[in-house]
């Protein structure tokens, strides 16, 4: 069944989903660790929490740590820790999968705090499927919001309630993502883009202290001078760092999209797109060279589309033309 099915099918699915409301998601589960000063200290250090009530061996756990005490960590199974999800919850997720809602994203959570947690408290909890929404359409796609309510106890006493909401959805058809955004050209960067239009890769060099810089800015960060000259780079460089973007789609780019920081032979670095290499072929230190692509032409390395040119890089071994 598709989440884009007709009204009758949609009503039938909604009734089947609603039947899971009130069914358990986890029963009589136990937190993997007792409340302890070490985890409280780690949390406070990361969050910058300096409240003295959360310091020392008798520290009160910060209220926002409520969910921490029931999290199982990265291991798929952990003896004495969080159990697998209940059969009812697994059935609900499978039903949504069968309806085409195969993607999932966490949307938000709500917490209620009923009593403090102290070191030595043994945490137990029960979780219930509180609600499954009717079909909703979002920018991510069409699907259903599933909310679970977890009651967290310390020594058998209710200490807090944690509501967690996810969206199970069928990803929206992306189709065309539109053209690549045009570069922002202003008085400070116009010289760089004029060079690109002439197939010249330019960076700035401070006239007073000689420090090279990129991107283009009005003044030198080293000495403060506003005097500079434009220098043509050779176009050769190496990959300094990189990332491979699989989602969301990048307008005007073929996915997966490879982006990186290139260290030019002259010492300056620039963020750019890396083409002509599969993601698994990318590596730090890979020799690359510049080429010029049409920003609106979807990859015309020759720049024959008549539009705005942008500098991109590809492995030096596949270089087609000079900068």
From TrEMBL:
Domain FAS1-like dehydratase: start-end pairs: 32-155
The record's section on InterPro entries has: ChsH2_C, ChsH2_Znr, FAS1-like_DH_region, HotDog_dom_sf, NA-bd_OB-fold, Thioester_dehydratase-like
Put simply, this protein is called DNA-binding protein
Ranges of compositional bias, category Gly residues: 297-308
- The domain of life for this entry's organism is Bacteria
What are the boundaries of the region Disordered? 297-323
Task: Please indicate if the UniProt record lists Zinc as a keyword.
Answer: no
- Domain ChsH2 rubredoxin-like zinc ribbon, chain residue ranges per copy: 193-228
Keywords of this entry: DNA-binding
User: Organism, per UniProt?
Assistant: Streptomyces mashuensis
Lineage, uppermost ranks: Bacteria, Bacillati, Actinomycetota, Actinomycetes, Kitasatosporales
The UniProt record lists the keyword DNA-binding: yes
Q: Where is the ChsH2 C-terminal OB-fold domain?
A: 231-291
GO molecular function annotation: DNA binding
